[in-house]
Amino acid sequence: MAPSHQPQLTFQHWRSDLAGGFTAAVVALPLALAFGVASGAGAQAGLYGAIVLGFLAALLGGTATQVSGPTGPMTVVMTGLLAVLTQRYGIEAALPLAFGIAALAGLLQVLMGVLRLGQTLTFMPYTVISGFMSGIGVIIVILQLPPLLGLKLSGSIPMLLKALAGALPGTNGLALLVGGLSFAAVMLYPRRWSKVLPAPLVVLVVGTMLSVIALPQEALPRLGPMVSGLPQLSWPRFPLGDLQLLISGAITLALLGSLDTLLTSLVADSVTRTHHNSDRELIGQGIGNTAAALLGGLPGAGATMRTVVNVQAGGRTRLSGITHAVVLLLICLWAGPLASPIPLALLAGILLKVGLDIIDWSFLFRAPRLSMRTTALMWLVLLLTVFWDLITAVLVGMFLANLFSLQRQNEQQKQASRSLRGGFEPEEAGLLSPQEQQLLRQAGDQVLLLQMSGPLSFGAGKVLTQKLNAIGAFQTLILDLSDVPLLGVTAALAIETLCLDSQEQGRSVVIVVLGDQPLARLNRMGVPGIPGVSLLPSRQAALQHALLRPA
Fold this sequence. Notes:
mainly alpha
């Protein structure tokens, strides 16, 4: 496990940690309520998730200043799971089943941390990350349209859009007004004021008070009563009769939560100039999500905005994240009834801003200037995320991104390789020493020098075949791998096949290899044991060896 340079739980900076944690809690409160409502699990589930996950991830995780709780991407997945489970098993059974999937997802996160997969998860191409994060932002925006219009609709995104088109005549004008004003207020709120009073909290409190004073209770849909008190432990159920949904849902939540968290950890590193422990962070997040599910809380991840707010307000150690959870717990214990008059449209306006912020606008506008392939891949992942599912979007995106990368690598290998014979022009000599040039000219057309450079993947076999097919007769092939630091298995097999074919044609092969890894790979493949094949440590030695071979 990579060493961590994060401070442990101390009280050395307790004043600044308390300030950071309190400020982060103020920012987290309206978002936790809004995410809970948006998911279909209820505002209380969002608050419980922020408390339990926020506390355990801060205590056990690998990023000292990170604040965790329900996030937009995780809420999107839970919303979809609850919609599917409600349709199949009914509203009463849906919640325990969804929490069961969330608990399993937490255990998968712990397993990923134990297996030290933390660093691996961040190797995803940015094009894919941008596509599915923007897709998640679009989903959040679409999910907020019904409450923004005062409508009660649910289902998948295609079903929701279809139902929304038919339900527009039933729009609640007052809800649209409240939601529109809420969105405008959050968008136009002065950034310098947010350091003292975050925009979501101000809009939540002021908007609710004005709606209570100016509008009748029944004029628009409201949050409704919230039970004050501690969450109750309950064992979640697992949809064992629907293993595909169980496994795919758990994997989606685990992967998304882990990626969301680790990206936030990188942001925290850049702000605090420290280094997080990825594997420990996954373990802490996994324990937190499992515990949250057992207590009826929404699963979540490291929250970027709340983490940055925490650091800017003074957070330095784990105490800041723990403080954030304790403050939310106190609010949950004593201020639950105060949340009942909150208009759902007001929360929708706040989340509408969150969804738009998640969309990677800069890359969306910049992608066409990069390449058509990059633009197409990003849009494909985005559309698959919105209209299909996240796992499919990521898998397809990763497959195509790797395929494009291998194609580029193959082209680079092709360009980096070159073949020389005795009649070469002076400008073709490249890095050949004067002695090597003299030996090659002396060899004439009987010797072919084929130079390769860079790591050789399975595309190297195709390059070798193309190069040799374009060249006439020769007696000795010198395969120069002196500039090859890494030799893949497939490339080694291609070299072995080349050597066997040369043996059948009566040609000899001299391989110049310097790197320990390529040499060890060729030895394990048994290439030196093929008749007519020699391994030498330099080009000059290889050319001298070729000249000694009788014509």
